[in-house]
């Protein structure tokens, strides 16, 4: 099992990337990693390891660059070379914490799309109050979608939830403005009927206020709606923790209370940290492509590698291809 990693992607690269790789190598005895980036900078944090290979390049795709243009022009960029490792069969999966649009472009045009999948979906696993989490797709790979695309998202999400997360007969929900069958716009109404007639465990419409309750294992929507929902959840969580921090440091008595509650607060923060589940998978491609968060630390990188390894081991992309082929 070999995974290609963009060593230069993200706010904390290459230090956090290399440290996450080292942790993964120490955890999984079957794992080999190819790090792509500036060798001199990578080696500052990397001791010799026969299971870690470094491919040197000085070229990087910056977070501010236009994705398609950057991928086309920067053929030697660390992210593009990473995707090429998968395309050429030298790696089973790849991970980057860099430019999201560029990674989606490299995934689509270098790694390649599965026949029968019209559009890939960007899909993080978000936390729930019960600690189990749910897969949310699409959160921005495509801002527009058709009913058949949401059906494909549901199929891919169900396969991932079953094969990687070990959930038997995953519950599939359709994000909507109400739970009634006839709610929503033409997209959700038509998607509802398709999902209802499928062999999936479709539980119906779900509202955004119920997402973190763990009402479904997989929730599907178009990328525009999904991205807004994702960023609303992120922003709300950050605001709540900010208010808690302010309240618990405002006086001596509150500071004493905070000291007593520190283990519980830490547990809540960990439970609500979606990097614990790995990165966002770009479903619909011929091999696992994982987008780690731009601010990923060592632990987030490790979890993204763990996720990519599990997807490759369980042949998620192969299973998606076979399932879609059977439906045609």
Describe the protein's architecture and organization.
The chain has 328 residues and is of the alpha/beta class. The chain has helices spanning 15-27, 39-42, 67-73, 78-87, 100-111, 147-163, 186-196, 223-247, 252-271, 298-313, 316-327, and strands spanning 2-6, 32-37, 52-56, 93-96, 121-123, 125-126, 134-137, 171-175, 201-206, 218-220, 280-283, 289-291. The strands form two sheets. The chain has a seven-stranded mixed β-sheet with strand order 3-2-1-4-12-11-5, sandwiched between helices. Strands 6-7-10-8-9 form a five-stranded mixed β-sheet, covered by helices on one side. β1, α1 (15-27) and β2 (32-37) form a beta-alpha-beta unit. α1 crosses α10 and α4 runs parallel beside α5. The protein is globular and about 60 Å long. Catalyzes the reversible formation of acyl-phosphate (acyl-PO(4)) from acyl-[acyl-carrier-protein] (acyl-ACP). This enzyme utilizes acyl-ACP as fatty acyl donor, but not acyl-CoA. Keywords: Acyltransferase, Cytoplasm, Lipid biosynthesis, Lipid metabolism, Phospholipid biosynthesis, Phospholipid metabolism, Transferase. One of its GO terms (cellular component) is cytoplasm.
């Amino acid at each position: 099992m070999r995974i290609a990693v963009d060593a230069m992607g993200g706010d904390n690269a290459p230090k956090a990337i290399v440290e996450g790789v080292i942790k993964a190598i120490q955890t999984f005895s079957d794992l080999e990693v190819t790090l792509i980036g500036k060798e001199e900078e990578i080696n500052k944090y990397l001791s010799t390891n026969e299971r870690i290979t470094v491919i040197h390049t000085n070229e990087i795709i910056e977070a501010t660059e236009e994705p398609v243009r950057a991928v086309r022009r920067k053929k030697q960029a660390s992210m593009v070379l990473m995707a090429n490792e998968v395309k050429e069969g030298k790696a089973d999966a790849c991970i980057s914490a860099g430019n999201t649009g560029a990674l989606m472009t490299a995934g689509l045009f270098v790694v390649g799309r599965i026949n029968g999948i019209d559009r890939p979906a960007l899909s993080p696993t978000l936390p729930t109050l019960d600690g189990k989490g749910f897969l949310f797709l699409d959160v921005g790979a495509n801002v527009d979608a058709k009913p058949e695309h949401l059906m494909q998202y549901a199929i891919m999400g169900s396969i991932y939830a079953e094969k990687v997360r070990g959930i038997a007969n995953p519950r599939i929900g359709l994000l909507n403005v109400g739970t009634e069958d006839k709610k929503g716009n033409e997209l959700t109404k038509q998607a509802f009927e398709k999902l209802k007639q499928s062999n999936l465990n479709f539980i119906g419409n779900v509202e955004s206020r119920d997402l973190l309750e763990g009402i479904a294992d997989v929730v599907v929507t178009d990328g525009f709606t999904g991205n807004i929902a994702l960023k609303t959840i992120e922003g709300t969580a950050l605001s709540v923790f900010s208010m808690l921090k302010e309240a618990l440091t405002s006086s001596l008595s509150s500071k004493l209370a905070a000291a007593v509650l520190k283990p519980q607060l830490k547990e809540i923060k960990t439970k609500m940290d979606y990097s614990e589940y790995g990165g966002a998978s770009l479903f619909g491609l011929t091999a696992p492509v994982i987008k780690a968060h731009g601010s990923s630390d060592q632990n987030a990188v490790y979890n993204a590698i763990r996720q990519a390894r599990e997807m490759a081991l369980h042949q998620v992309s192969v299973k998606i291809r076979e399932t879609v082929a059977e439906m045609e």
